[in-house]
Specification:
By secondary structure, this protein is α+β, with helices and mostly antiparallel strands. It is built from 14 helices and 20 strands. Strand 12 and strand 13 form a beta hairpin. Helix 4 packs across helix 8 and helix 5 packs across helix 6. The longest helix has 20 residues.
Amino acid sequence: MLPEYHSSIASQLLTRFSFVIFRDKISSCIAPDCHGSDSRDSCRTYDKVHCSRRMASQEQVGVKASEFHGLSISQTLAKFGPVRENHAIKAVLASDKELSTSSGADSKVLRKKLNKVVLAYSGGLDTSVIVPWLRENYGCEVVCFTADVGQGLQELDGLEQKARASGACQLIVKDLKEEFVKDFIFPCLRAGAIYERKYLLGTSMARPVIAKAMVDAAKEVGADAVSHGCTGKGNDQVRFELTFFALNPELNVVAPWREWEITGREDAIEYAKKHNVPVPVTKKSIYSRDRNLWHLSHEGDILEDPANEPKEDMYMMSVDPTNAPDTPEYVKIGIVEGLPVSVNGKELSPASLLAELNDLGGKHGVGRIDMVENRLVGMKSRGVYETPGGTILFSAVRELESLTLDRETIQIKDSLALKYAELVYAGRWFDPLRESMDAFMKEITKTTSGSVTLKLYKGSVSVAGRESPNSLYRQDISSFESSDIYNQADAAGFIRLYGLPMRVRAMLEKRL
Protein backbone atom coordinates (compact mmCIF):
# COMPACT_ATOMS: atom_id res chain seq x y z
CA MET A 1 0.00 0.00 0.00
CA LEU A 2 1.17 3.49 -0.78
CA PRO A 3 2.13 5.76 2.11
CA GLU A 4 -0.67 8.07 3.26
CA TYR A 5 0.98 11.19 1.80
CA HIS A 6 1.39 9.69 -1.64
CA SER A 7 -2.13 8.26 -1.59
CA SER A 8 -3.44 11.76 -1.03
CA ILE A 9 -1.39 13.10 -3.90
CA ALA A 10 -2.53 10.29 -6.17
CA SER A 11 -6.19 10.93 -5.40
CA GLN A 12 -5.76 14.58 -6.33
CA LEU A 13 -4.01 13.72 -9.55
CA LEU A 14 -6.77 11.26 -10.52
CA THR A 15 -9.25 14.10 -10.86
CA ARG A 16 -7.18 15.90 -13.50
CA PHE A 17 -4.80 13.57 -15.25
CA SER A 18 -4.53 10.12 -16.66
CA PHE A 19 -1.68 8.63 -14.68
CA VAL A 20 0.64 5.76 -14.06
CA ILE A 21 1.66 4.89 -10.53
CA PHE A 22 4.66 2.85 -9.84
CA ARG A 23 6.80 2.08 -6.85
CA ASP A 24 10.37 3.16 -7.18
CA LYS A 25 12.65 3.48 -4.25
CA ILE A 26 14.81 6.58 -4.44
CA SER A 27 17.30 8.21 -2.16
CA SER A 28 16.68 11.78 -1.09
CA CYS A 29 19.15 14.13 -2.72
CA ILE A 30 19.35 16.57 0.12
CA ALA A 31 21.27 14.24 2.38
CA PRO A 32 24.63 13.33 0.84
CA ASP A 33 27.67 15.43 0.14
CA CYS A 34 28.62 16.34 -3.41
CA HIS A 35 29.60 13.47 -5.66
CA GLY A 36 32.24 14.48 -8.16
CA SER A 37 34.82 12.72 -10.22
CA ASP A 38 37.57 13.27 -7.68
CA SER A 39 37.80 11.03 -4.62
CA ARG A 40 39.92 13.45 -2.62
CA ASP A 41 38.57 15.49 0.27
CA SER A 42 37.82 19.15 -0.26
CA CYS A 43 40.91 21.11 -1.16
CA ARG A 44 42.19 24.29 -2.75
CA THR A 45 43.11 24.10 -6.42
CA TYR A 46 44.20 26.48 -9.16
CA ASP A 47 41.34 26.94 -11.63
CA LYS A 48 40.00 23.48 -10.74
CA VAL A 49 37.00 22.60 -8.64
CA HIS A 50 35.68 19.29 -7.38
CA CYS A 51 33.31 17.74 -4.87
CA SER A 52 34.15 14.97 -2.49
CA ARG A 53 32.84 11.53 -3.48
CA ARG A 54 33.35 10.07 -0.04
CA MET A 55 30.43 9.95 2.38
CA ALA A 56 31.62 11.27 5.73
CA SER A 57 29.89 10.68 9.02
CA GLN A 58 31.32 13.88 10.41
CA GLU A 59 31.90 17.30 8.95
CA GLN A 60 34.82 17.23 6.54
CA VAL A 61 37.64 19.65 7.06
CA GLY A 62 38.08 22.03 4.12
CA VAL A 63 39.98 25.16 3.28
CA LYS A 64 40.58 27.23 6.39
CA ALA A 65 40.60 30.61 4.73
CA SER A 66 39.34 31.99 1.45
CA GLU A 67 41.79 33.69 -0.86
CA PHE A 68 40.24 35.72 -3.62
CA HIS A 69 43.18 36.48 -5.88
CA GLY A 70 44.08 34.12 -8.71
CA LEU A 71 42.51 31.09 -7.11
CA SER A 72 39.48 28.95 -7.54
CA ILE A 73 38.44 27.85 -4.07
CA SER A 74 36.32 24.78 -3.49
CA GLN A 75 34.81 24.10 -0.10
CA THR A 76 33.02 20.83 0.64
CA LEU A 77 30.53 21.36 3.43
CA ALA A 78 29.00 19.16 6.07
CA LYS A 79 26.48 16.40 5.48
CA PHE A 80 22.96 17.61 5.79
CA GLY A 81 21.37 14.57 7.37
CA PRO A 82 20.74 10.86 6.99
CA VAL A 83 19.82 9.32 3.67
CA ARG A 84 16.11 8.63 3.44
CA GLU A 85 14.35 6.27 1.08
CA ASN A 86 10.94 7.24 -0.20
CA HIS A 87 8.43 5.81 -2.58
CA ALA A 88 7.80 8.13 -5.51
CA ILE A 89 4.71 8.73 -7.55
CA LYS A 90 5.01 9.35 -11.24
CA ALA A 91 2.06 11.20 -12.74
CA VAL A 92 1.89 11.41 -16.50
CA LEU A 93 -0.24 13.94 -18.34
CA ALA A 94 -2.47 12.87 -21.19
CA SER A 95 0.20 14.26 -23.52
CA ASP A 96 2.67 11.81 -21.95
CA LYS A 97 4.76 14.67 -20.53
CA GLU A 98 6.25 13.97 -17.13
CA LEU A 99 4.89 16.03 -14.26
CA SER A 100 7.08 14.82 -11.41
CA THR A 101 9.39 11.89 -10.91
CA SER A 102 10.72 12.23 -7.41
CA SER A 103 10.23 13.63 -3.96
CA GLY A 104 12.36 16.00 -1.96
CA ALA A 105 12.60 17.03 1.66
CA ASP A 106 9.71 15.88 3.82
CA SER A 107 8.33 13.89 0.88
CA LYS A 108 7.44 17.07 -1.01
CA VAL A 109 6.74 16.45 -4.69
CA LEU A 110 9.52 18.08 -6.70
CA ARG A 111 9.04 20.53 -9.52
CA LYS A 112 11.72 18.63 -11.40
CA LYS A 113 14.55 16.36 -10.38
CA LEU A 114 17.98 17.91 -10.75
CA ASN A 115 21.25 16.44 -9.50
CA LYS A 116 23.46 19.45 -8.94
CA VAL A 117 22.94 23.19 -9.46
CA VAL A 118 25.59 25.93 -9.69
CA LEU A 119 24.10 29.07 -8.12
CA ALA A 120 25.34 32.63 -8.69
CA TYR A 121 25.88 33.50 -5.04
CA SER A 122 26.46 36.79 -3.23
CA GLY A 123 25.78 35.75 0.35
CA GLY A 124 22.91 38.21 0.70
CA LEU A 125 19.40 37.40 1.87
CA ASP A 126 18.03 36.39 -1.55
CA THR A 127 20.77 33.96 -2.53
CA SER A 128 21.00 32.57 1.01
CA VAL A 129 17.33 31.65 0.77
CA ILE A 130 17.67 30.27 -2.76
CA VAL A 131 20.03 27.53 -1.55
CA PRO A 132 17.49 25.66 0.63
CA TRP A 133 14.69 26.48 -1.83
CA LEU A 134 16.58 24.70 -4.63
CA ARG A 135 17.21 21.67 -2.43
CA GLU A 136 13.59 21.54 -1.32
CA ASN A 137 12.03 22.02 -4.76
CA TYR A 138 14.52 20.24 -7.02
CA GLY A 139 16.05 17.65 -4.68
CA CYS A 140 19.54 18.73 -5.70
CA GLU A 141 22.94 19.54 -4.32
CA VAL A 142 23.80 23.24 -4.54
CA VAL A 143 27.24 24.55 -5.47
CA CYS A 144 27.56 28.27 -4.69
CA PHE A 145 29.59 30.31 -7.17
CA THR A 146 30.96 33.78 -6.45
CA ALA A 147 32.85 35.88 -8.99
CA ASP A 148 35.30 38.58 -7.95
CA VAL A 149 34.85 41.28 -10.58
CA GLY A 150 36.18 44.05 -8.38
CA GLN A 151 33.21 44.58 -6.08
CA GLY A 152 35.53 44.77 -3.08
CA LEU A 153 36.79 42.24 -0.55
CA GLN A 154 34.25 43.39 2.02
CA GLU A 155 31.52 41.75 -0.08
CA LEU A 156 33.47 38.48 -0.16
CA ASP A 157 34.10 38.17 3.58
CA GLY A 158 32.50 35.24 5.35
CA LEU A 159 30.99 33.64 2.24
CA GLU A 160 32.11 30.12 3.17
CA GLN A 161 30.33 30.30 6.51
CA LYS A 162 27.19 31.75 4.90
CA ALA A 163 27.14 29.06 2.22
CA ARG A 164 27.59 26.36 4.87
CA ALA A 165 24.75 27.76 6.98
CA SER A 166 22.43 27.94 3.96
CA GLY A 167 22.99 24.29 3.09
CA ALA A 168 25.32 24.43 0.09
CA CYS A 169 27.69 21.53 -0.46
CA GLN A 170 30.47 23.59 -2.03
CA LEU A 171 31.67 27.16 -2.54
CA ILE A 172 33.67 28.33 -5.54
CA VAL A 173 35.22 31.81 -5.59
CA LYS A 174 36.81 32.88 -8.87
CA ASP A 175 38.97 35.96 -9.45
CA LEU A 176 37.77 37.34 -12.81
CA LYS A 177 39.05 40.92 -12.61
CA GLU A 178 41.73 40.73 -15.30
CA GLU A 179 39.53 38.71 -17.66
CA PHE A 180 36.66 41.12 -17.06
CA VAL A 181 38.69 44.18 -18.02
CA LYS A 182 40.77 42.65 -20.82
CA ASP A 183 38.14 40.56 -22.61
CA PHE A 184 34.91 42.45 -21.90
CA ILE A 185 35.53 46.07 -20.90
CA PHE A 186 38.35 46.87 -23.32
CA PRO A 187 36.49 45.59 -26.44
CA CYS A 188 33.55 47.87 -25.54
CA LEU A 189 35.96 50.74 -24.97
CA ARG A 190 37.61 50.17 -28.35
CA ALA A 191 34.19 50.05 -30.03
CA GLY A 192 33.05 53.25 -28.33
CA ALA A 193 29.94 51.47 -27.04
CA ILE A 194 27.67 53.75 -24.99
CA TYR A 195 24.01 52.88 -24.38
CA GLU A 196 21.46 55.66 -24.88
CA ARG A 197 24.04 58.47 -24.93
CA LYS A 198 25.26 58.03 -21.36
CA TYR A 199 25.48 54.52 -19.93
CA LEU A 200 28.94 52.95 -20.10
CA LEU A 201 27.53 49.41 -19.67
CA GLY A 202 29.09 48.48 -16.32
CA THR A 203 26.59 45.84 -15.25
CA SER A 204 25.91 44.73 -18.83
CA MET A 205 29.56 43.74 -19.34
CA ALA A 206 29.92 42.01 -15.96
CA ARG A 207 27.06 39.54 -16.34
CA PRO A 208 28.40 37.55 -19.33
CA VAL A 209 31.85 37.09 -17.77
CA ILE A 210 30.21 35.75 -14.59
CA ALA A 211 27.80 33.51 -16.50
CA LYS A 212 30.65 32.17 -18.64
CA ALA A 213 32.58 31.20 -15.51
CA MET A 214 29.47 29.52 -14.10
CA VAL A 215 29.15 27.37 -17.22
CA ASP A 216 32.81 26.36 -16.83
CA ALA A 217 32.25 25.55 -13.15
CA ALA A 218 29.16 23.50 -13.96
CA LYS A 219 31.21 21.38 -16.33
CA GLU A 220 33.97 20.84 -13.77
CA VAL A 221 31.69 19.80 -10.90
CA GLY A 222 29.33 17.81 -13.10
CA ALA A 223 26.27 20.00 -12.57
CA ASP A 224 23.22 19.65 -14.77
CA ALA A 225 21.75 23.08 -13.98
CA VAL A 226 22.60 26.70 -13.17
CA SER A 227 20.62 29.24 -11.21
CA HIS A 228 20.59 32.98 -10.50
CA GLY A 229 18.80 35.40 -8.18
CA CYS A 230 17.69 37.95 -10.79
CA THR A 231 14.13 39.21 -10.66
CA GLY A 232 11.68 38.82 -13.51
CA LYS A 233 11.52 42.59 -14.10
CA GLY A 234 15.14 43.39 -14.88
CA ASN A 235 17.77 43.04 -17.58
CA ASP A 236 20.15 40.72 -15.74
CA GLN A 237 17.99 37.61 -16.08
CA VAL A 238 18.32 37.95 -19.86
CA ARG A 239 22.08 38.55 -19.73
CA PHE A 240 22.73 35.48 -17.60
CA GLU A 241 20.45 33.14 -19.48
CA LEU A 242 21.48 34.13 -23.02
CA THR A 243 25.06 33.38 -22.02
CA PHE A 244 24.01 30.01 -20.60
CA PHE A 245 22.14 29.22 -23.83
CA ALA A 246 25.06 30.25 -26.02
CA LEU A 247 27.75 28.32 -24.15
CA ASN A 248 25.89 25.20 -23.02
CA PRO A 249 22.30 24.84 -24.25
CA GLU A 250 21.96 21.50 -22.43
CA LEU A 251 22.08 23.10 -18.99
CA ASN A 252 18.83 23.53 -17.11
CA VAL A 253 18.25 27.09 -15.87
CA VAL A 254 16.38 27.80 -12.64
CA ALA A 255 15.21 31.36 -11.87
CA PRO A 256 13.53 31.24 -8.43
CA TRP A 257 12.12 34.76 -8.60
CA ARG A 258 9.99 33.65 -11.54
CA GLU A 259 8.77 30.54 -9.73
CA TRP A 260 8.48 30.88 -5.98
CA GLU A 261 5.82 32.46 -3.77
CA ILE A 262 8.27 34.80 -2.02
CA THR A 263 7.26 38.35 -2.91
CA GLY A 264 9.57 40.51 -0.82
CA ARG A 265 12.14 40.84 1.93
CA GLU A 266 9.77 39.90 4.77
CA ASP A 267 8.73 36.70 3.00
CA ALA A 268 12.38 35.83 2.43
CA ILE A 269 13.23 36.38 6.09
CA GLU A 270 10.31 34.17 7.16
CA TYR A 271 11.42 31.41 4.77
CA ALA A 272 14.98 31.66 6.10
CA LYS A 273 13.82 31.27 9.70
CA LYS A 274 11.63 28.30 8.79
CA HIS A 275 14.61 26.54 7.21
CA ASN A 276 17.13 27.55 9.90
CA VAL A 277 19.09 29.77 7.53
CA PRO A 278 20.77 32.64 9.40
CA VAL A 279 19.50 35.95 8.03
CA PRO A 280 22.40 38.18 6.98
CA VAL A 281 22.87 40.79 9.68
CA THR A 282 24.30 43.46 7.41
CA LYS A 283 22.29 46.67 7.29
CA LYS A 284 20.12 46.80 4.19
CA SER A 285 20.90 49.78 1.98
CA ILE A 286 18.01 51.98 0.94
CA TYR A 287 19.49 51.80 -2.57
CA SER A 288 19.90 48.85 -4.89
CA ARG A 289 23.57 48.85 -5.87
CA ASP A 290 25.80 46.90 -8.21
CA ARG A 291 29.55 47.38 -8.01
CA ASN A 292 32.45 46.10 -10.06
CA LEU A 293 35.82 47.39 -11.20
CA TRP A 294 34.22 49.50 -13.96
CA HIS A 295 31.41 51.25 -12.10
CA LEU A 296 28.99 51.55 -9.21
CA SER A 297 25.26 51.83 -9.95
CA HIS A 298 22.52 53.18 -7.68
CA GLU A 299 18.78 52.59 -8.04
CA GLY A 300 15.70 52.75 -5.81
CA ASP A 301 14.43 54.92 -2.95
CA ILE A 302 14.21 58.62 -3.93
CA LEU A 303 15.80 57.86 -7.31
CA GLU A 304 12.57 56.20 -8.42
CA ASP A 305 11.19 59.71 -8.92
CA PRO A 306 13.17 61.28 -11.79
CA ALA A 307 12.38 64.73 -10.35
CA ASN A 308 14.47 64.09 -7.23
CA GLU A 309 18.10 65.13 -7.09
CA PRO A 310 20.41 62.39 -5.73
CA LYS A 311 21.64 62.91 -2.19
CA GLU A 312 25.35 63.52 -1.87
CA ASP A 313 25.81 60.82 0.79
CA MET A 314 24.74 58.21 -1.79
CA TYR A 315 27.97 58.44 -3.79
CA MET A 316 30.79 56.07 -2.86
CA MET A 317 33.43 56.17 -5.65
CA SER A 318 33.67 59.91 -6.27
CA VAL A 319 33.79 63.12 -4.24
CA ASP A 320 31.41 66.02 -4.74
CA PRO A 321 32.94 68.00 -7.63
CA THR A 322 32.57 71.17 -5.58
CA ASN A 323 34.81 69.60 -2.93
CA ALA A 324 37.38 68.30 -5.42
CA PRO A 325 40.89 69.80 -5.45
CA ASP A 326 41.11 73.43 -6.59
CA THR A 327 44.13 72.61 -8.74
CA PRO A 328 43.70 70.66 -12.00
CA GLU A 329 45.58 67.39 -12.40
CA TYR A 330 46.97 66.15 -15.70
CA VAL A 331 47.11 62.47 -16.64
CA LYS A 332 48.72 60.92 -19.72
CA ILE A 333 47.14 57.75 -21.13
CA GLY A 334 49.20 55.52 -23.43
CA ILE A 335 47.19 53.63 -26.06
CA VAL A 336 48.18 50.83 -28.45
CA GLU A 337 45.78 49.79 -31.24
CA GLY A 338 42.80 51.33 -29.51
CA LEU A 339 43.46 49.86 -26.04
CA PRO A 340 45.01 51.64 -23.02
CA VAL A 341 48.33 50.27 -21.78
CA SER A 342 49.87 52.89 -19.49
CA VAL A 343 49.20 55.78 -17.10
CA ASN A 344 51.76 58.59 -16.94
CA GLY A 345 54.31 56.38 -18.68
CA LYS A 346 53.83 53.41 -16.31
CA GLU A 347 52.65 50.22 -18.01
CA LEU A 348 49.98 48.37 -16.05
CA SER A 349 47.81 45.28 -16.40
CA PRO A 350 44.23 46.02 -17.54
CA ALA A 351 42.70 45.66 -14.07
CA SER A 352 45.48 47.60 -12.33
CA LEU A 353 45.28 50.41 -14.90
CA LEU A 354 41.53 50.77 -14.41
CA ALA A 355 41.83 50.68 -10.61
CA GLU A 356 44.40 53.48 -10.66
CA LEU A 357 42.23 55.67 -12.88
CA ASN A 358 39.22 55.00 -10.65
CA ASP A 359 41.12 56.46 -7.71
CA LEU A 360 42.37 59.41 -9.74
CA GLY A 361 39.01 60.20 -11.32
CA GLY A 362 37.12 59.72 -8.07
CA LYS A 363 39.38 62.21 -6.33
CA HIS A 364 38.33 64.88 -8.86
CA GLY A 365 34.61 64.00 -8.92
CA VAL A 366 34.78 62.62 -12.46
CA GLY A 367 32.31 60.14 -13.97
CA ARG A 368 28.93 60.82 -12.35
CA ILE A 369 25.97 60.06 -14.63
CA ASP A 370 22.25 60.43 -13.86
CA MET A 371 19.96 58.95 -16.51
CA VAL A 372 16.56 57.50 -17.32
CA GLU A 373 17.08 54.44 -19.50
CA ASN A 374 14.91 51.99 -21.40
CA ARG A 375 15.21 48.50 -19.95
CA LEU A 376 15.21 45.54 -22.28
CA VAL A 377 11.94 44.25 -20.80
CA GLY A 378 10.14 47.44 -21.86
CA MET A 379 9.93 49.70 -18.82
CA LYS A 380 11.93 52.83 -18.08
CA SER A 381 14.16 53.04 -15.04
CA ARG A 382 16.22 55.77 -13.45
CA GLY A 383 19.75 55.07 -12.35
CA VAL A 384 22.80 56.96 -11.16
CA TYR A 385 26.22 55.63 -12.14
CA GLU A 386 29.75 56.36 -10.97
CA THR A 387 32.35 55.46 -13.61
CA PRO A 388 35.45 57.60 -12.91
CA GLY A 389 38.12 55.49 -14.61
CA GLY A 390 35.87 54.55 -17.51
CA THR A 391 35.01 58.19 -18.22
CA ILE A 392 38.72 59.05 -18.43
CA LEU A 393 39.45 56.13 -20.76
CA PHE A 394 36.54 56.87 -23.12
CA SER A 395 37.73 60.47 -23.44
CA ALA A 396 41.31 59.37 -24.14
CA VAL A 397 40.44 56.82 -26.85
CA ARG A 398 37.99 59.17 -28.58
CA GLU A 399 40.52 62.02 -28.68
CA LEU A 400 43.25 59.81 -30.13
CA GLU A 401 40.87 58.56 -32.84
CA SER A 402 40.41 62.17 -33.96
CA LEU A 403 44.04 61.99 -35.11
CA THR A 404 44.18 58.47 -36.52
CA LEU A 405 40.81 57.85 -38.22
CA ASP A 406 39.45 59.58 -41.32
CA ARG A 407 35.98 61.13 -41.53
CA GLU A 408 34.17 58.21 -43.20
CA THR A 409 35.68 55.64 -40.83
CA ILE A 410 34.70 57.66 -37.75
CA GLN A 411 31.14 58.02 -39.01
CA ILE A 412 30.76 54.30 -39.71
CA LYS A 413 32.41 53.39 -36.41
CA ASP A 414 30.09 55.68 -34.46
CA SER A 415 27.00 54.28 -36.17
CA LEU A 416 28.06 50.68 -35.43
CA ALA A 417 28.92 51.59 -31.83
CA LEU A 418 25.24 52.24 -31.18
CA LYS A 419 24.30 48.73 -32.28
CA TYR A 420 27.26 47.25 -30.44
CA ALA A 421 26.06 48.91 -27.21
CA GLU A 422 22.51 47.64 -27.73
CA LEU A 423 23.75 44.06 -28.16
CA VAL A 424 25.83 44.23 -24.98
CA TYR A 425 23.01 45.85 -22.99
CA ALA A 426 20.62 43.12 -24.17
CA GLY A 427 22.91 40.30 -23.03
CA ARG A 428 23.94 39.20 -26.52
CA TRP A 429 27.68 39.21 -25.86
CA PHE A 430 28.20 35.81 -27.47
CA ASP A 431 26.01 36.65 -30.45
CA PRO A 432 27.87 36.19 -33.78
CA LEU A 433 26.84 39.72 -34.77
CA ARG A 434 28.67 41.31 -31.84
CA GLU A 435 31.70 39.11 -32.43
CA SER A 436 31.77 40.11 -36.11
CA MET A 437 31.43 43.79 -35.23
CA ASP A 438 34.24 43.39 -32.73
CA ALA A 439 36.50 42.05 -35.49
CA PHE A 440 35.71 45.18 -37.51
CA MET A 441 36.49 47.46 -34.55
CA LYS A 442 39.79 45.67 -33.98
CA GLU A 443 40.80 46.06 -37.61
CA ILE A 444 40.05 49.78 -38.03
CA THR A 445 41.79 50.75 -34.76
CA LYS A 446 45.11 49.15 -35.66
CA THR A 447 46.57 52.60 -36.27
CA THR A 448 45.07 54.13 -33.10
CA SER A 449 48.30 54.19 -31.11
CA GLY A 450 49.82 57.09 -29.24
CA SER A 451 49.06 59.09 -26.11
CA VAL A 452 46.51 61.58 -24.84
CA THR A 453 46.96 64.06 -22.02
CA LEU A 454 43.78 64.94 -20.13
CA LYS A 455 43.04 67.59 -17.54
CA LEU A 456 40.87 66.58 -14.57
CA TYR A 457 39.19 69.41 -12.72
CA LYS A 458 36.11 69.47 -10.49
CA GLY A 459 34.13 66.75 -12.26
CA SER A 460 35.27 67.56 -15.80
CA VAL A 461 37.63 65.81 -18.21
CA SER A 462 39.11 67.93 -21.00
CA VAL A 463 41.81 67.18 -23.51
CA ALA A 464 45.14 68.95 -23.15
CA GLY A 465 47.14 67.20 -25.88
CA ARG A 466 47.25 64.27 -28.32
CA GLU A 467 50.06 62.66 -30.26
CA SER A 468 50.40 59.61 -32.51
CA PRO A 469 52.99 58.26 -34.96
CA ASN A 470 50.02 57.43 -37.22
CA SER A 471 48.43 60.87 -37.09
CA LEU A 472 46.56 61.99 -40.22
CA TYR A 473 46.91 65.58 -39.09
CA ARG A 474 49.51 67.49 -41.12
CA GLN A 475 50.47 70.90 -39.86
CA ASP A 476 51.96 71.87 -43.21
CA ILE A 477 48.56 71.22 -44.85
CA SER A 478 46.29 72.61 -42.14
CA SER A 479 48.31 75.77 -41.58
CA PHE A 480 47.01 79.08 -42.97
CA GLU A 481 50.41 79.56 -44.51
CA SER A 482 50.91 78.71 -48.19
CA SER A 483 51.43 75.04 -49.03
CA ASP A 484 52.56 73.08 -52.04
CA ILE A 485 50.07 70.27 -51.24
CA TYR A 486 46.94 72.40 -50.80
CA ASN A 487 46.28 75.15 -53.34
CA GLN A 488 43.55 77.42 -52.03
CA ALA A 489 42.49 78.35 -55.56
CA ASP A 490 41.36 74.75 -56.07
CA ALA A 491 38.57 75.34 -53.58
CA ALA A 492 36.53 77.41 -56.07
CA GLY A 493 35.95 74.51 -58.46
CA PHE A 494 35.25 72.15 -55.58
CA ILE A 495 32.58 74.45 -54.15
CA ARG A 496 30.86 74.85 -57.53
CA LEU A 497 30.63 71.08 -58.01
CA TYR A 498 29.74 70.32 -54.38
CA GLY A 499 26.99 72.94 -54.39
CA LEU A 500 25.60 72.06 -57.83
CA PRO A 501 22.42 70.30 -56.53
CA MET A 502 21.51 73.30 -54.38
CA ARG A 503 22.19 75.68 -57.26
CA VAL A 504 19.99 73.68 -59.68
CA ARG A 505 17.11 73.61 -57.17
CA ALA A 506 17.31 77.36 -56.68
CA MET A 507 17.32 77.89 -60.43
CA LEU A 508 14.19 75.73 -60.76
CA GLU A 509 12.35 77.70 -58.10
CA LYS A 510 13.24 80.99 -59.76
CA ARG A 511 12.40 79.58 -63.21
CA LEU A 512 15.85 80.41 -64.52
